[in-house]
Amino acid sequence: MSAATDLAARVQARVGTVPLDVHEFRGEITLIAPAERIVDVLGAARAVLGEPVVLTDLTAADRYPSEPRFEVVYLLTGYAPPARLRIKARLAGEAPVIASATGLWPGADWLEREVYDLFGIRFDGHPNLTRILMPADWEGYPLRKDFSLTEEPVEFVEHVPKVPSTIIPKSPPRE
Amino acid sequence: MASSSVHAETLTINMGPQHPATHGVLRVVLDLEGEVVLGARPDLGYLHTGFEKEMEYRTYHQNIVFPPRIEYLATFIEEAAYVLAVEKLLAITAPPRAQTVRVILMELSRIASHLVWLGTSALDLNVTSAFMYCFQDREEILDLFEMVSGQRMMHGYLRLGGLQWDLPEGFAARVRRFVDDLPRRVNLYEALLTDNLIWRKRTEGVGVLTAADALRYGCTGPLLRGAGVDYDVRKAFPYSGYEQYEFDVPLARRGDSFDRYVIRMEEMRQSRRIILQALDRLPDGPVLVDDRKIALPPRSELVRSMEAVIHQFKLVSEGLRPPVGEVYAAVESPRGEKGYYVISDGSNRPARARIRSASFNNLQALPVMVYRGYLSDVIVAIASIDIVLGDVDR
User: Fold this and answer.
1) Strand-by-strand arrangement of the B27-33 sheet
2) In angstroms, what CA-CA distances link A90 with A66, A78, B84, B212?
3) Which CATH number, 1.10.760.10, 3.30.2160.10, 1.10.645.10, 3.90.25.10, labels domain B48-370?
């Protein structure tokens, strides 16, 4: 058993019956946890990694059009000994909401606001869930796959909003 | 009658967004009681350009141009972070010569970035002469970068699997000349500032961030090491062969602005140590992987081989297609841990490219650092975080 899978097994032992899906790719370990138990799983991972454990990153990914559509991704780093663990929770596309991690790490505050701002995922229990990068009156969530990338329209005569170059079109996935 | 009621009044003011000491465009809403800061709320997004969205619309090779525009003070470190993430996805490593050259360029970037930090924060504290000295030295580094890549800042010199081309003639000698003179210059800056009474009074005990707070907010870099936590990505998760170099990670205890200054000065000396070791061991050999599915074939092959032409055409017109998967690769930038989290769906564009920005997390600790301090110390605290707003807002 490698050190990475051992880590996953120890998290599993702590959370008991919560089903965790373990993936390993390029030596990085990813646990997929049920969204409704995410705070328990994060707490267990924090205990397993051994203090200090830092929430290095919190982000999301849009898997549109597949369902469950959203993934909220937590990257934890244990400093002594150095170890990384990625934890994911999947959310349905309709009104996505997940518990906030601000109780475990105050640093999750801005990261969760960013995810809310760009993906429209709500964090239950967040102290101040408002937009952070986009203007407060912005409509839509820019990092969603169905938010098309076009230039913001301006009221100039004959102005046509630019769309990104399609000189190199998106290819199908390789076999 | 009024003295007590006037004293109790809280005044809310704006600092920025066009304040010269915010090193970009940052607005901080401050709640003041007299000169004392009771609350600070940073307001971001003025430089948000949607790099993460843009990167989903371009091929893996095209995306190399974005990183140096995000963190424009440590350009090669930023480029390396992205390139290392995609290389991890492709399960390739650059040839030894390319890795050593990357280390030299990354450490030069670190020195350049710390010099800009030193010059501009000294300027914020009214030491105008240091600014000129620091930019003079940084200019020499930018000239070296231009010599290598043709560009002073937005290089696009790193390639997936190596470098665009080999080092130009005379580069190593010129780097050596620069780093040989560096200790004298760093000593000069220290002589100017370290024992300067005003400098010390303005920075000592100002903007204190304890180790516990730094960890809670996910701060990295000099902010974290200034509070005494020994975490440097180069030591914890070595990349580009950093495990083969001898260098120290400077630490301090108090976590104030002065400690961060001391750490950055020492880091410049340590970077010099790494550069000298890298120059000594710089191996011969190729600078790009010999895999036609990843790297462009050399020009000389194009005139002889039809296969090379097909590879060139496929790479340019379609780009490479990594396997399905997701990776996170981090580097130690001058501001802390900088990481790229790339998700591939097996097509020629990343399904998601997430930029883990050190400045974003570090800035989040600003309200803690300035709480119950003086208004003028907010400037010092912001300067000592060393934010790059392009990196915060992405």
Assistant:
1) B11-15, B27-33, B36-43
2) 11, 24, 27, 31
3) 1.10.645.10
Share of chain A above pLDDT 90, in %: 27
In this prediction, the answer to ipTM > 0.85 reads yes
- pLDDT for res A112: 93
Instruction: Provide, as residue numbers in chain B, all residues whose Cβ is less than 8 Å from the Cβ of A143.
Output: 52-53
Q: How many CB pairs under 8 A join A and B?
A: 117
Tell me the whole-structure pTM to 2 decimals: 0.90
Helices B171-193, B96-124: axis angle to 10 degrees equals 30
What residues contact residue B243 under an 8 Å CB cut-off, 6+ apart?
Answer: none
Residue B365 has pLDDT above 70, yes or no: yes
Partners of residue A114 in chain B, C-beta under 8 Å: 360
Domains and CATH numbers, chain A: 3-124 (3.30.460.80)
Neighbours of B252 (CB within 10 A): 18
pLDDT digits (tens, 9 = 90+) for B254-270: 889 999 999 999 999 99
Name residue, tokens 């990481």: B339
**Cβ–Cβ below 8 Å for A52 and B347:** no
